Amino acid sequence: MNNVKKILIVDDEASMRRNIVDLFAMKGYSLLEAKSGEEAIDIINSTSLDILILDINLPNMSGLDVLKHTKENYPDLPCLVLTAYGTSEKAIKAMKLGAFDYLEKPFELDEFLLITDRALKYSKLIEELKQLRNKVSHHQPEEANKIVSKNAKMQEIF
Asked: How far is Cα 11 from Cα 59, in angstroms, rounded to an integer?
């Protein structure tokens, strides 16, 4: 199992994408970039991601449209939304659509790292939960007969 975290960064500003890529590259993450909503959806549909970092203000297709598509098709993918200062209505709408969290640009580096770390931990927990559910769903009923107890009350239950 590959433990390298895959992060998609979607922003039409090349300098913003580059800054985020540089920040996470030092941590050994696999980073993908998109400059438009259409490009982001292509990557989202073809790649298993651990987190999506998404600017709301994109040309042609808005970040909210990308978020809506993502949550409809990949509801467990944590999406961190970036907004320009003063666009709190869009941030609220993003949270209602299922964004993991949001940050206003320009953001504090420490806060950004904290939120992305929480999102990656959430992603890991979701993956572990899926694996456990899969194991439980494949649980064989005859294995329950292998439970051993000398207690009379427990014998009644078996």
From this structure: 10
